[in-house]
């Protein structure tokens, strides 16, 4: 329900279909923005952002793990008429959001499905505001929200593998107030795109995260159509995971913005108050019922903080940009574009191919006192 006491900003999300040869898909995306200089400046600088040695290392890494993504990026750069060294995607990726996520196994919900749920909290000022269905030759088709066009912040692929994420501790990056990376590697959005392109199940996703160099500290939750799921945590180059399935006692996993696996907790001694509140809320809501429904999950995502996970703090880069409930068994997703307490839900599948736009509301509030405190 919309509250008349709040200020709102209206924006539009776009549903895009990307299909074909990787280079051509990249070129098409570049051509779609070439007539908008302000958008071009957002994606590409006038000067080199990456030095020659780093570009060699970047190209080598992509050639090993995802050569088609490198081709897509090259097509984009060619369409803009800039060297790939000038792309902000490489600069930001070669090493942010705060989110809440959880997965519920079939034994825990009344529909007998596995549901991977996630709120993505950031700001409309820097978000792509784009949900993509991507079908590129030699890759698995996948659907998910994009960032900087080529990265993914969550998604599901044609094999029924879904992935969501949240930052583990303070965000890692190249901007003031972010944590400096401790190792050379990629940002989470590049790793997630590669997982969706190349991995068919939870075990393959775990192996890839353990192998690929990643500088970002992240909580990934991966789930697949077999009914298995895993929480994979990375911190300063260390990786740990916990897997659940029909043969385990635990039937759900959750993560917010701190480390929870015992192998890595020594790295993350202080936690933001809001992260602890959201983590404990998810646990209490799911543990409070023997069986939960999809509507129960939507309520957890849509109720406003601290009674739920929906946040309106967009000017502080902590507003709910979108909510998603991925269904790996049926290869579908329920999506709410914008704040989930005042915007409608939609259902999308791999059969949907109509390009569309969705007008959404973003209520503007300030975070409550103590929200950012480290405890």
Q: How would you describe this structure to a colleague?
A:
- With 375 residues, the chain is of the alpha+beta class.
- The protein folds into 2 domains: 20-92, no CATH class; 96-348, Penicillin V Acylase, Chain A.
- Helix content is 26%, strand content 29%.
- The strands form 2 sheets. Strands 1, 4, 5, 6, 7, 8, 9, 10, 11 and 17 form a 10-stranded mixed β-sheet that branches.
- A hairpin with a 5-residue loop joins strand 9 (218-223) and strand 10.
What is Rg? 19 Å
Please indicate the percent range of residues in DSSP E strands (runs of 2 or more): 25-35%
How many DSSP H or I helices?
9
Specify the CATH architecture of the largest domain.
Answer: 4-Layer Sandwich
Mean pLDDT: 91
CATH class label of the largest domain: Alpha Beta
Distance between the termini: 33 Å
**Whole-number count of domains:** 2
Order of helices and strands: EHHHHHEEEEEEEHHEEEEHHEEEEE
Give me the CATH fold name of the largest domain: Penicillin V Acylase, Chain A
The percent of residues in helical segments reads 25-40%
Q: How many runs of DSSP E, i.e. beta strands?
A: 17
Low-confidence stretches: none
Shape: globular
The description of the largest β-sheet is: 10 strands, mixed
Structural class comes to: alpha+beta
* CATH-assigned homologous superfamily of the largest domain: Penicillin V Acylase, Chain A
